[in-house]
Amino acid sequence: MSDTKPLVRREDADGICTLTLDRPEALNALSLGVFQELEAHGTALAEQTGEVGCVVLRGAGRSFSAGNDIKSMQAGEKDPHLHYRTDVVDQLEKLPQPMIASVRGHCYTGALELALVCDLMVVSETARFRDTHANFGMVPMWGMTARLPNRIGVQRAKELMFTGRLLTAEEAVAWGLANQCAADEDLEDATREMAESIVAQSWHSLREEKALVDAASRMTYAEGLAWEREHSRGTTPDLAKRLASFGKKG
């Protein structure tokens, strides 16, 4: 067994899987190794719908992630192919389980692209968002130009991308990038509370709803209605049990 410390730590409890970017000394910069471990976790989670009902993505230490690992780029680190990291980001977005990004501190550029694949986002008051592609003369390749406008609207996305301005946690909630802002010391509890409320629901319904919403978001209104009618898989396998317990909870 290798003694090498994982770059992405996985912890499971009560149906919730927490993936932690674990390079706090480098502000969880996104190296090739981080993406390779994210890919491995994503592959496993896609097959664990019976064991995991919700996935939380977070960063160790004071930052979610400062973004792409510039030092590894300067050192000439090479990906397996041009779109490898894009493929991993897309893989995570397609996970059947609902995903929550839990963000404190930096969430810059590539880290923002990674956080955008999560369905929901809880942030601490220290969270700061920024797109620095243009600062470095780079162009997005991991989905920023599609996912950011889809989340916050075209004009606001262009403002962030064209100016490189910093977005605060409070602005992130107001703009619709994040769902909830908590005090820094309460971030884990707030994230856990949201995750627990998710896994208390029917996991069958959660997976089907996520798939239907994601598909409809890429269609016209009429197409989305037709898609739901044609592809909804109906009731959850534990419908009878859930109906029997209706009204019994205080």
Structure characterization notes:
The protein is of the alpha/beta class and 250 residues long. It folds into two domains: 8-199, Alpha-Beta Complex (2-enoyl-CoA Hydratase, Chain A, domain 1), CATH 3.90.226; 203-244. It has eleven helices and nine strands. It has helices at residues 32-46, 70-74, 84-93, 110-115, 144-152, 154-163, 169-174, 187-199, 203-216, 221-231, 239-244; strands spanning 8-13, 16-21, 54-59, 99-103, 106-108, 120-124, 128-130, 167-168, 180-182. Strands 1-2-3-4-6-9 form a six-stranded mixed β-sheet, sandwiched between helices. Strand 2 (16-21), helix 1 (32-46) and strand 3 form a beta-alpha-beta unit. Helix 5 crosses helix 6 and helix 9 (203-216) runs antiparallel to helix 10. The longest helix is centred in the N-terminal third of the chain and has 15 residues, at 32-46.
Helix-strand blueprint:
Elements: E1 8-13, E2 16-21, H1 32-46, E3 54-59, H2 70-74, H3 84-93, E4 99-103, E5 106-108, H4 110-115, E6 120-124, E7 128-130, H5 144-152, H6 154-163, E8 167-168, H7 169-174, E9 180-182, H8 187-199, H9 203-216, H10 221-231, H11 239-244
Parallel strand pairs: 2-3, 3-4, 4-6, 5-7, 6-9
Antiparallel strand pairs: 1-2, 7-8
